[in-house]
Here is the input.
Amino acid sequence: MRFDGTKDYVATDDLKVAVNAAMTLRRPLLVKGEPGTGKTVLAYEIAKAMGTPLIEWNVKSTTKAHQGLYEYDAVARLRDGQLGDERVHDISNYIRKGKLWEAFTAPELPVLLIDEIDKADIEFPNDLLQELDRMEFHVYETKETIKAAERPIVIITSNNEKELPDAFLRRCFFHYIKFPDRQTMQEIINV
Here is the structure.
């Protein structure tokens, strides 16, 4: 498995090295750069080049790390219990899988894009440290552990709006996509 860019995406040599190192060692790749330099599109193109599915998690200012794992809908369960619905006896009916859960249990190796991580609260990256390191997490409501059969290819983007915690940065490969020079810009225009 090697990424050399695609017919629709011009990748510089240093970007190819970063992507291939992250894919080989299955460590998250943190890609920073100015808006419009192709950070998000990179994940799409890696998935396309590898012929694997893309699971996209768009982070917002209100996004909590736990939402990437799962969410338990206690209100729906309470409502169903009041209405006498039989589904209420199985708590798993009220667990909604998050994007990390989807990536960990995907039938084939996916590319997981965590897009614009710097939009979230400063604690967001730290709250994902253990899950991204171990590639597993525990679902307390059902008492099960969700473990990745194979480490997904994780691409994390940042517009550098906020500093990310050092503990998080140590667990990622890092690449800064510079604004293209004249020659690279011409290649992009030609594509």
User: Anything to note?
Assistant: Residues 52 and 110 are 5 Å apart (CA to CA).
